[in-house]
């Protein structure tokens, strides 16, 4: 599960539209796309959140700006509409609405939007509009007019909670086994071409080369997995840098890591299609690890 913090906005219509990933109109009813939200009191809840239109959610999230006086952000002109998203890996199972709701509540709690037992917590809504993705949009102005306090660094706090959610919901871990080998170890682990054996029949040669491809694609100590791990770590670090360049660069590295994972899968698929499967099984010292979902930064 990969968390991503989007650039803050002054109006909720921008992140709401981005979460839906489609053109919207004020009369659009979001319905079951809303999996969770801050508690709605009787003054705003008319017909239940599933019946609210796009305009209703926009008005709901803008309401704290009408509090007078209300606290400005750390910088006087900071936008108050906060948007974060989390993405699952493609290999993850499909979560049910109550599970998405749990994810939303846990993330808003650690992000400082909805501290436990706080009646003046921020207004927020969580949308599950795209496969494997959850968007949370909130107003950083609390119900008492104060600007909420978020943990620093927020990106790390969200990543740590995502790791706990992965364990609790049995999802693909972002960095299995605590990370992957560093580059310094690659020279001893880099597989070479298999030695020539007596049997040079086409199936035997194909089996040798398939073994090599499996070693290249091995998730536990293969060179591609090692490089991918370094790319993911760099992406995590970039998310902690200023929004002017950090998150965008981190997102690009996520896509690179995802492509590396795709290369691993292609190598394994190619090896599986080669003839001589029985010989390959005899030559392989241990079966290659099942392809793990692209790690956390792997744009899930």
Task: Give a verbal description of the structure.
- Helices cover 39% and strands 10% of the residues.
- Strand 4 and strand 5 form a beta hairpin.
- Strands 1-3-5-4-2 form a five-stranded antiparallel beta sheet, sandwiched between helices.
- It is α+β, with helices and mostly antiparallel strands and 300 residues long.
- The protein is built from nine helices and five strands.
Q: How far apart lie the N and C ends? A: 7 Å
Q: Number of helix segments?
A: 9
Please give the largest β-sheet.
Answer: 5 strands, antiparallel
Number of strands: 5
Could you estimate the helical fraction of the residues in percent? 25-40%
Kindly report the average pLDDT value.
76
The proportion of strand residues reads: 5-15%
N to C succession of SSEs: EHEHEHEEHHHHHH
Please identify the structural class as seen in this structure: alpha+beta
Strand arrangement in the largest pleated sheet: 1-3-5-4-2
Radius of gyration: 24 Å
Low-confidence stretches: 176-190, 277-300
* Dominant shape: elongated
Oligomer: single chain
Q: Characteristics of this structure?
A:
five-stranded antiparallel β-sheet, disordered C terminus, 39% helix
